[in-house]
Amino acid sequence: MLQRIILIFLASLGYGSSDRVWQPESSVQVLQKQQTEIICTFETTDTDPYLFWYIQPLSGSPRHLMTITSTYSTNAEGFKERFDATLNRINKTAHLTISSSKLSDSAIYFCALRPTVRKIKLRALQKLLSKKTALEISLNVHILPYNEKFRTFYVQN
Question: Residues of the signal sequence (predicted)?
């Protein structure tokens, strides 16, 4: 019953099926020093979407990595060197690129789309939802030691 009430409340806020993000791969493995790309696909009614990337180290809290739009991207402090991202409004994809991967890059990467609801409604919404909402996705990235003689990439369901 509570779940139905929450869904009705969310629908009344305009928060629901109109905006969402997902990711083709749930897990990626790359060798150290290699470039890796993480793709986020999104649907939104917003004509100027903002997309946020977050990183959660394997033993830590999530941190803001960068914010991107179709015209610019800004990296958070500490992520200016090897992290870059692009957003394509036509294909509705965002690509996060990590150049020269390090073991310390092993983490869960979150992609979040800026909600289109107003701030007042968003505060009420945040009280109802758990940490992960339909507007975030996560990807586990594991960096393998460089002495491996092969490149590994796999998708895990």
Answer: 1-18
pTM score above 0.70: no
Inter-residue contact 96 to 122 (CB < 8 Å): no
Q: Are 85 and 94 in contact (CB under 8 A)?
A: yes
Look at the domain 2-144 and name its fold.
Immunoglobulin-like (2.60.40)
What residues does each domain of the chain span? 2-144
Angle 142-100-110 from CA coordinates, rounded to 5° = 45
For residues 50 and 67, the answer to whether their CB atoms sit within 8 Å is: yes
**How many whole angstroms separate alpha carbon 14 and alpha carbon 43?**
14
Task: Convert the pLDDT of each residue in 40-51 to its tens digit.
Answer: 999 988 888 889
